[in-house]
Amino acid sequence: xxxxxxxxxxxxxxxxxxxxxxxxxxxxxxxxxxxxxxxxxxxxxxxxxxxxxxxxxxxxxxxxxxxxxxxxxxxxxxxxxxxxxxxxxxxxxxxxxxxxxxxxxxxxxxxxxxxxxxxxxxxxxxxxxxxxxxxxxxxxxxxxxxxxxxxxxxxxxxxxxxxxxxxxxxxxxxxxxxxxxxxxxxxxxxxxxxxxxxxxxxxxxxxxxxxxxxxxxxxxxxxxxxxxxxxxxxxxxxxxxxxxxxxxxxxxxxxxxxxxxxxxxxxxxxxxxxxxxxxxxxxxxxxxxxxxxxxxxxxxxxxxxxxxxx
Length: 310
Ligand SMILES: [Zn+2]
Hints:
The structure is a single chain. Helix content is about 35%, strand content about 25%. It has two domains: about 1-110, ATPase, nucleotide binding domain (Nucleotidyltransferase, domain 5), CATH 3.30.420.40; about 135-295, Nucleotidyltransferase, domain 5. Helix 3 crosses helix 10 and helix 7 packs across helix 8. The chain has ten helices and 14 strands. The mean pLDDT is about 95. The strands form three sheets. The protein has a six-stranded mixed sheet. The protein has a five-stranded mixed sheet with strand order 12-11-10-13-14, with helices on both faces. By secondary structure, it is α/β, with parallel strands linked by helices. It binds zinc ion. The site of zinc ion (ZN) has 6 residues, from loops. Belongs to the ROK (NagC/XylR) family.
């Protein structure tokens, strides 16, 4: 188990714990005032309901040294279909969980109410906090998660927007992509079939990670790379416009594994948006490229956001 501790003893006051459940590891942070991470811990993820609950309780206990009395809030971010009101989670495919009362079971073991969010929402809030310094970025913030799948998390003045059924920001399954690939959801042409991390890996299998290599080769004018990058970046442009023109965010954060490509990705997206702006005065007036930010790579945004989502 990896534990980092910047402060050995807690000095009264109130703390928040955030736990990020991933497909391969489970990570926790202890947050003090001003959203400062003062401790973190990480363990490999195991499969099955009991192991998942055990692991969440283990990492949470580590960061507060088994003393939950000073913990005012405990939040968990997880893949799967999350009911953020009840704390129930269905279908965490990578961890072999089909149905789990995650929030109530963790609360029972820790004595602290445990709030559960989907992992994209948690990362959205965590990234908005990390970019905001001591407070979460104000106003409307959109976080685009180019992970295995494609989804957005929407934050309004530090509060997550869930919608009526928790589906706000599920832009990956909007079926507007012109190549009309079949999506596992049953539709054809979902944005996720072209511009998620998994899709880019499928479209450009010659390198892992795919995106940096794809951009490099397209810059060298390799014909196949130019075609594939064009397809991917157009879908990203559509995704950004759909989110931007729906909620008009002041900041659009690029996150998920694909965003680790960094500045080269921002550059190709900016070029695509500028190309569109040249055809549309309205779009030009929005100046979307100026709103783009990369999610910070040096901070555990999923765990931080889980702590703040409570
Ligand atoms: Zn779909």
